[in-house]
Structure formats: structure tokens, C-alpha cells
Amino acid sequence: ETSIKYRAMNNKFGMIGLIFIGICMVIAVNRYKSYDRSVSVKGLCEKEVMADKVIWPLVYKVVGNDMEAIYSEITQKNNIVVEYLKSKGIPQEEISVSAPNVVDLKAERYASEERTYRYNVTSVITVASRQVEKILTLTSQQGELIAKGVTLVSGDYQYNTIYEFTGLNDIKPQMIEEATANARQVAQKFAEDSKSRLGKIKKASQGQFTVTNRDSNTPYIKNVRVVTSVDYYLR
To answer: How many H-runs (helices) and E-runs (strands) does the chain carry?
Structure first.
């Protein structure tokens, strides 16, 4: 009789143990499933910034038949342009004068008509400066050089003014932080709509930064953009 009672108690405790193990397994499976639930979102951050560097080519042409006279005129006009720039506050070290580009029109292979002038010479004086505001002012005052005998060429894509933004590393941390915060807001809204709670970050990746002109009319204003991708656990 005692043996029968002992076996019954063992069976009872064994059954309880099996039930406990089963409950633990259910909890573990549910917990595992909850960790497996996640949401992938993207966060965007955009900023408009002013260019902090400008490359400004000043281009003019001289035509003629006498190369000696042409080079003499170019030397004179180069000096006029350089002195004009210096008088406007552009230091000598920001000014560079390129060698003239000479085109012999009569030597052109496909020339079919008689040319008035044989030589077409292009001279380029380039300003590379961080005084962007000053250069913007000077580009609108180029007509002052006409009064000094120098007519600048415009509209040639080879000699466009280039505006650059070099301070990207200074604003990267803040922009990444804002993009990540934006991603979290999107994930939080998704969690609320799905009757879940937002958990920790499962995975995150930083997108590539892009710097583009805001528009074609104001190339000195740049649009900086970054998109971050973040995966969050859902509880």
C-alpha cells in the first residue's frame, strides 16, 4: 500500500514537472517569436547650406593675325584683370593665370570658308576662394571690366563657376541623429497601429550623403541629404 502511494506521488510530481516544463517551453517560444518580430523603417534628414568654396574662371578671347601682337594684348589684359581682382579684396594667392589656348583657324581640317582672323586665343584667369559672398558680388559687377577694355565670355559650359560645400564632416553627426530620430517616429507609429511596443534597434545602416544644388539658379545654395535605414524589434 505504501509503495502504491509512493508511486502515485511520484506520478503526481512527474505530471506537475511536465506541466511546468511545457509552460516554460511555451513562454520560451513566445519570447523567441516576439524577438523575431521587427519593423524596417527609413529616416530622412535634409539641410540647406551655403557653399563655402568657389572656383570662378574669368575668360576672354583675343583674335588676330599677328601672334606677337596678340600675346602683348593678352599680357596687358591679364594684368588689368588681376589688378582689378586685387583691388576688390582678392589676394594674389587665390588668383591663377593659365597659359593661353591658341587655335589656328586656318589650320583647321574642315575649314571651308575664308577667315577674317587666323588666330583665336582664349585666356583664363581663375579665382579659387572661400570668400563666396564677395565672389557673388563681383560676378554681378563684371561689367566694370568692360570699361577697362576686357570683355569676359559667358555661357561656355567649360568655364562655369563652381560652388562647393566642404563642411560635410561638421554637420554629419547632427544629421544622422535627426535622421535616426525621424526613423524612430515612423517605427513608433507602426508599433502603435499594430498594437505592439517598440523594442531596441535590431540593425541600422547609414545611407550615403548627397550634396546637390538647390536649383539651377542658385548653385551656391546646396541641399545636403541623408537617409538612414533602421530595423526595430517589436514586443
So the answer is: 5, 9
Contact assessment for residue 46 and residue 221, using Cβ atoms and an 8 Å cutoff: no
Instruction: Read off the C-alpha cell for 118.
Output: 587666323
Alpha helices (H) in 103-226, listed in sequence order? 132-139, 143-146, 168-193
For residue 100, what is the DSSP state? P
Q: Is the pLDDT of residue 32 over 60?
A: no
Query: How far apart, in whole angstroms, are the C-alpha atoms of residue 158 and residue 213?
Result: 18
Low-confidence winner among 18-22, 111-115, 149-153 (lowest mean pLDDT): 18-22
CA-CA-CA-CA torsion sign (101, 106, 108, 112): positive
**Mean pLDDT value across residues 201-226:** 93
Q: Quote the CA–CA distance of 77 and 97 in Å, as a whole number.
A: 11
Compute the distance between CA of residue 214 and CA of residue 35 in angstroms, rounded to an integer. Answer: 43
* Residues making up the chain, counted from first to last: 235
59 backbone dihedrals φ, ψ, rounded to 5°: -120, 135
